[in-house]
Here is the input.
Amino acid sequence: MYTTKLDPAEISALTDRLLIARSNNLKQILEIEHRLETVSMKDGVEFLNDSKATEPTSTLYSLSCMDKPVVWLLSCVLGFEDLSELRGMVSGKVKAIFYMGDTNDLLVEDFVTEVDLVQQCGSMEELVAEAFEYANEGETILFSPATPSSELFGNYRKRGEEFRKCVMAL
Here is the structure.
């Protein structure tokens, strides 16, 4: 005869194993290069590299992790025109948006009424410099593109490395 009942000691041991496994998985996720990676802290402004966020759902998660006001940096890719699922999160977390790439007003038009500033930039250097000039002490600059890498960078790794390089050059 089989039973599905576990005694309290077995439940406790199983719970401990599950909590350890979850902790190890979260640690591995947070150690992924270009995924919510802390690049630098400059003048009280934290720079996070989330270049691996190549679609809106990843950026949604990243924004949900933020506990300070956010200056969000994203990439616009021609043909990718819907970030509307981020609108609710943006209105509660983001104070400004800086974006680079193809001029793509459709991509950011959902956010114009949700934030204080939406600004297009022509290069990664300009994107980082303008965001840093705008940000205040105690805020986070989050580079979480929410779109695939463009031809300009080739992949999220190169894009993330360029972001790091520009932050370190400030």
The longest strand covers residues 94-101. Helices lie at 8-30, 56-64, 87-93, 105-108, 124-134, 156-168. The beta strands are 37-42, 45-49, 70-76, 94-101, 117-121, 140-143. The mean pLDDT is 85.
